[in-house]
């Protein structure tokens, strides 16, 4: 695709990157077939190719984003199925990040939209505040939801936010800085515990730590690391995202320089995609950030990659559970990890199945299910229908967002909770009753 950026624009590294991405696209349209929003809405402007054109025009012109461009870019899930499909290697993610940041800086959203985005960007990355807001949402839900009409976008969004608050919040887990290995020490890793995950499902981090410790791995969780910046980046709030990422990099860098790290282990694949990209994100920042960010990115691994690397072995006999594996977009499209989780689950003795259209997003996508509840709900229903056909006992996935989005029918757990159980850990809370029944 030909581009027409000015010399002035091409002095900005973000424009240089977007220019390269745009020039790689040959507008063949192969990506449209696997784009969830195009599959649902059938509008070219809700396809990757259409969005690429919209962003090209917006960035080349250098004028404020139009309502039409903001609408179609906002509808993009950031699932990156298009990147997996594209035969030309178009790096849509880098272009989308530039486009979202540009829209956030130039487009005047309604006050309701701005207020909602402000709340999400400031509450979700703060676990204490997030916990309080979930308790408030749960208490308010029975009284407030009947008063919220369905015909307005704002009230539909509020309904979606209230619906996502779990009926029961698990106890908040106390967090140590260092979790020592059991037996001989074989390695040392940092674990990203995340911002929303410890509030919604603290057992995921507990299972990860238990499993790694049992394998002889020391786990360090620096208290300074809370949010990696992915959530705010998805909303185009680049400055907030960079501030969170800088704090995270600084804390892990201290560990790298101190007692050393073999890996930075991530069990929230949405965050993993961003952290693996830190090297690129910080490439033009002042020293020492590019070097530090690149080191962190080089050490970042998904928990399943790390477990394969250190040699996961189950300790229990197979329990006969049939697992529907839901491949989170951030894991399959963002990080290219497809086989490891399924291999590990099979090695642990589970029967592993995958739904039709496993490449399609479940609609979670960071804050998407709250900002675009209608599309998100259609994707959720479609995904649950495909999973239902598998007649599985449990859904396993590698991202807390998908876990929350798909909850409600059959139990949903994180892959690492099943692996920990089969390696001798306790049953995941969502499966405790059924596993105890099987064992009895
Ligand atoms: S498949 Fe790739 S090259 Fe073809 S239109 Fe989509 S992004 Fe462009
Ligand atoms: S990131 Fe997902 S929703 Fe967005 S254009 Fe690509 S495939 Fe479509």
Task: Identify the notable features of this structure and list them briefly.
440 residues; Fumarate Reductase Iron-sulfur Protein, Chain B, domain 2; 4 domains; 5-stranded mixed β-sheet; 9 strands; globular; binds iron/sulfur cluster
How does this structure look, described?
There is one protein chain. The protein has helices at residues 13-24, 36-41, 48-61, 67-74, 81-85, 92-106, 111-123, 127-144, 153-164, 197-200, 202-214, 230-234, 238-257, 269-276, 278-281, 289-299, 303-310, 329-332, 339-347, 368-371, 373-388, 400-405, 415-422, 432-439, and strands at 178-179, 187-192, 217-220, 263-266, 300-302, 322-326, 351-353, 394-397, 412-414. The strands form two sheets. The chain has a five-stranded mixed sheet with strand order 1-3-2-4-5. A four-stranded parallel sheet has the order 7-6-8-9. Helix 22 (400-405) links the parallel strand 8 and strand 9 (412-414). The mean pLDDT is 94. By secondary structure, it is of the alpha/beta class. It folds into four domains: 9-106, Fumarate Reductase Iron-sulfur Protein, Chain B, domain 2 (Orthogonal Bundle), CATH 1.10.1060.10; 117-164, no CATH class; 178-307, Glutathione S-transferase Yfyf (Class Pi), Chain A, domain 2; 315-439, 3-Layer(aba) Sandwich (Rossmann fold), CATH 3.40.50.1860. The chain contains 24 helices and nine strands. The chain is globular. Residues 25-31, 48-49, 82, 86, 88, 90 line the site of one iron/sulfur cluster (SF4).
């Amino acid at each position: 695709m030909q581009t027409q950026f000015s010399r002035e624009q091409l002095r900005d590294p973000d424009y240089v990157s977007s220019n390269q991405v745009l020039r790689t696209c040959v507008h063949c349209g192969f990506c449209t077939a696997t784009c969830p929003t195009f599959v649902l809405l059938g509008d070219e402007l809700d396809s990757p190719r259409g969005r690429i054109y919209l962003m090209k025009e917006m960035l080349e012109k250098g004028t404020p984003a139009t309502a039409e461009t903001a609408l179609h870019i906002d509808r993009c899930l950031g699932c990156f199925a298009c990147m997996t499909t594209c035969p030309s290697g178009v790096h849509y993610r880098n272009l989308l990040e530039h486009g979202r940041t540009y829209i956030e800086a130039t487009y005047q959203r309604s006050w309701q939209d701005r207020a909602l985005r402000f709340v999400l960007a400031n509450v979700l990355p703060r676990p204490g505040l997030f916990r309080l807001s979930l308790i408030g949402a749960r208490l308010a839900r029975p009284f407030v939801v009947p008063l919220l009409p369905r015909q307005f976008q704002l009230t539909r969004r509020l309904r979606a936010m209230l619906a996502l608050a779990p009926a029961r919040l698990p106890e908040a887990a106390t967090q140590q800085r260092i979790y020592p290995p059991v037996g001989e020490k074989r390695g040392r890793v940092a674990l990203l515990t995340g911002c929303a995950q410890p509030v919604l499902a603290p057992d995921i981090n507990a299972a990860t730590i238990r499993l790694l410790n049992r394998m002889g791995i020391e786990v360090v969780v620096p208290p300074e690391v809370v949010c990696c910046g992915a959530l705010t980046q998805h909303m185009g709030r680049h400055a907030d995202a960079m501030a969170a990422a800088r704090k995270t990099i600084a804390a892990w860098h201290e560990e790298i320089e101190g007692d050393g790290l073999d890996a930075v282990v991530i069990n929230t694949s949405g965050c993993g995609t961003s952290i693996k990209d830190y090297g690129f994100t910080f490439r033009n920042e002042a020293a020492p950030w590019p070097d530090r960010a690149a080191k962190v990115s080089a050490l970042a691994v998904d928990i399943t990659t790390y477990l394969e690397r250190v040699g996961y072995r189950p300790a229990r006999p197979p329990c006969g559970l049939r697992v529907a594996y839901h491949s989170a977009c951030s894991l399959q499209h963002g990080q290219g990890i497809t086989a490891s989780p399924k291999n590990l689950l099979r090695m642990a003795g589970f029967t592993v199945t995958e739904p039709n259209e496993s490449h399609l997003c479940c609609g979670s996508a960071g804050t998407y299910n709250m900002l675009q509840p209608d599309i998100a709900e259609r994707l959720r229903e479609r995904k649950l229908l495909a999973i239902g056909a598998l007649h599985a006992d449990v859904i396993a996935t590698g991202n807390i967002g998908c876990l929350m989005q798909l909850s409600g029918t059959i139990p949903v757990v994180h892959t690492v909770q099943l692996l920990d159980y089969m390696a001798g850990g306790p049953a995941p809370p969502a499966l405790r009753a059924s596993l105890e029944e099987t064992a009895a």
